[in-house]
Write a structure and sequence with these properties.
Low-confidence stretches: none
Radius of gyration: 19 Å
Strand content: under 5%
Structural class: mainly alpha
Number of helices: 10
Distance between the termini: 55 Å
Length: 185
């Protein structure tokens, strides 16, 4: 395991029992049996390490997702598996990293699906607008759930399942219709 991977793994593990604000470089280095200089060789601070985690995080099943529902269910499975880590990150100064992670990954996958399927006969810019708007709504809903410190992983999963189903039957089609109207202008 590389030194960078050790730091990433250790931080995620520590965040299962401590809020991010209670973890400092010294404690993290002790856990990894590394010197502080080694940490600072790779990262500027704990938030830089956290950003690296989100930048390189893989969502299992995302590459195989063929539609919006499969995409969102892959994110839901990831979020449930990493619930404590994500909630701890979201309820710290790293909230933007969590929001950006969900928004950018959902946008990219939806844009890929929409443009490859071209089910609606729109241009790439229209699909990009649909993907961006929908990803913003979905990432905000994930964040809304993470903000609730009393929510359990099971309640989170049920809430997000209901949201995914409802948004795919109402919000997503409305965004497609909006894109079609914008195309006419």
């Amino acid at each position: 395991m590389t030194t960078e991977a050790k730091f990433k793994y250790a931080l995620k593990e520590m965040m299962l029992s401590k809020p991010l604000e209670e973890i400092n470089v010294t404690v993290l280095c002790d856990k990894c049996a590394c010197h502080r200089q080694t940490f600072y060789y790779h990262y500027q601070d704990i938030y830089d390490l956290l950003a690296a985690i989100f930048l390189n995080e893989d969502i299992e099943g995302l590459d195989k997702a063929k539609d919006a529902k499969e995409t969102l269910l892959a994110f839901l499975a990831y979020a449930k598996e990493n619930f404590v880590f994500l909630r701890s990150s979201y309820n710290s100064a790293a909230r933007d990293l969590v929001d950006d992670f969900f928004y950018s990954k959902i946008t990219a996958k939806l844009l890929s699906i929409l443009t490859s399927n071209n089910n609606y006969g729109l241009q790439k810019d229209s699909y990009r607008n649909i993907a961006r708007r929908y990803a913003k709504i979905v990432s905000d809903e994930f964040g809304y759930c993470f903000k609730d410190v009393g929510i359990t992983p099971i309640k989170f999963e049920k809430t997000m399942h209901r949201f995914i189903d409802a948004s795919l039957t109402s919000v997503f089609p409305a965004l497609v219709e909006l894109a079609k109207e914008e195309k006419k202008k």
